[in-house]
Amino acid sequence: MTSPIPILSLPILSLQCGKVVPFRAEHEPSAIAKRPVAGRVRVHRLGLEGDAQADLSVHGGPDKAIHHYPHDHYAFWRDAIGEHPLLADYGAFGENISTAGLTEEGVCIGDRWRLGSALVEVSQGRQPCWKLDHRFGGARVNAACIKSRRPGWYYRVIEEGVVGAGDTMELIDRPFPDWSVLRVFGLLIAGDHKSDRAGLEALGEVTALAEPWVRRRAKLLGAPG
């Protein structure tokens, strides 16, 4: 497996936060509608100050404190679903961090990035859900995220601090250079485990992998071939 060429630093284009509000129905709240915030934001153990998640059983928590989605992918989505109004700004996919020049192929599980004065660690890729389809007015975004392998990824917070748009993200450490988010997403979510059981077994060496994906790996290892 060829290791991604590391990008050592890049600027943050925008930071987004969101509040919990009714989504598809009153009894289905969500904070996916995140909007750019001005100024500097505190980074706490559970994410950006002022950000929220509705269902903490599947969103948020220490291993999914901050969501990063490449703004690079927006051009793909314009081609795929058309010029949707959400694609005219940052935060269309509920991401907290927007950058250009860094995608799933160039980010590895366990990467540690200096985010402003905070230190964060890549814990897992995002596992898309139905809320993306509803947010985009019924477009098949969820399935296309998986098929095109454009999920984005999550960070856990190692050191708290502050960050603002315009700050530089700097790669501090890469302990698992062979395990890009793209590769791990392929194995655990996009079906690559069916043809790469050796890879699925070797993934056990990645101690930085978030617990939900550790369980996902164990389940797939136990599945009949």
UniProtKB/TrEMBL annotation:
Residues 35-172 form the MOSC domain. Coiled coil: none annotated. Gene3D superfamilies: PK beta-barrel domain-like. It comes from the Bacteria. Pfam families: MOSC. GO terms for molecular function: catalytic activity; molybdenum ion binding; pyridoxal phosphate binding. SUPFAM superfamilies: PK beta-barrel domain-like. This is Molybdenum cofactor biosysynthesis protein. The lineage of its organism: Bacteria, Pseudomonadati, Pseudomonadota, Alphaproteobacteria, Sphingomonadales.
